[in-house]
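Sat 14:20. Reprocessing the chain from the morning session after the first attempt stalled halfway. Input below, unchanged.
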Amino acid sequence: MTAPSPEITAFWRAFSDAQASLQAQPLRERVESANALIERHLGGLALEMSGGDGDAVVDLIVTAHGSTEKFPLLMQAVAAAPALQNYRVRAFRERTTQPDFPIGMDGFQLATSEVLIALDQDGGQAALEIRFGREIPSDYQDHARNMAFIMLDHVLGEYDFAVKVGAVDFVGQAGDPQAQWVPLSQLPPVFDRYWVETLGRTGDFPAGEHDWSGMTLAFGGEPGDGDGDEGPGGREDTAIVMVNRSASPVAMRADLSHALVLDLAVGDRDELAAVQALQDQAATLLELPQLGILAYTLTRAGHRKAVYYVGDEQLARQALAPLLLRDEAESLVLSTTYDPAWSGYFEFAVH
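Finished this time. Tokens:
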């Protein structure tokens, strides 16, 4: 694991030092004091506490309010948490155990049972259509939509709502007669079943030979058209993409959220064969211990990129280190991006 940043270290030191004074406060005030601490050190993160005033130990939930850009910082902060006498530290706002509830805003009240949801596909994610099961006064339409988003975050949980859900559309009435509408209060089991049975996200690593499919993409145009993508002399620039369809069941697993890219130069057919063999061996090293999976490759402009989705970036790099010392890896450019929704993969896998 990577050593925590100075900011994370400073926050946990300050929180640990403040434990005694925090315990003397009622829970609501304790949350406010704790958030003043985290805002000072880790902007974009917040703290929530689950428990009662008299509980010796309460759950301390670190949240980014659904901002995926802050999820890496959140997970690093939770991983670096010290042992705390009065708190169990947890990442992300989890699903409520009682999804049938009302909330109020500016004198208007809405219950989860009055928010109706239909599921559809949006690339690799689940799309949501939302309509209301009762008349909403025109003055409260915006309120009702904002409240529906807050409710979804609590009913599905912060991580699932931010990562697994794509487009969210509000509709006035049911358009598709085949759509199955369910009250938001009953959505979690329906959503989970849709995720596995319809989208095929079982979470299970594939066994045996993987199913690959290929496509050729064209870039560029006429000489001097100014798009900057044409090859030498204005020739069309093409890319060959190979997609591992067998990776789809583990897509968007929370422990496979980083896209690790091995970018290698391929000057001729022999180099291409050597690079492909190396990238395939890297896949084996990651997939056998289930550290990650090779999702797709892209060959373009004298380079072949292999993209693996991994959980622990440092562990993955350590597993590949001996392989990447070989002569055929001399041109290697290794990079990592946080992509929990596997957007890079589904850019090609949806075709």
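DSSP finds ten helices and 15 strands in the chain.
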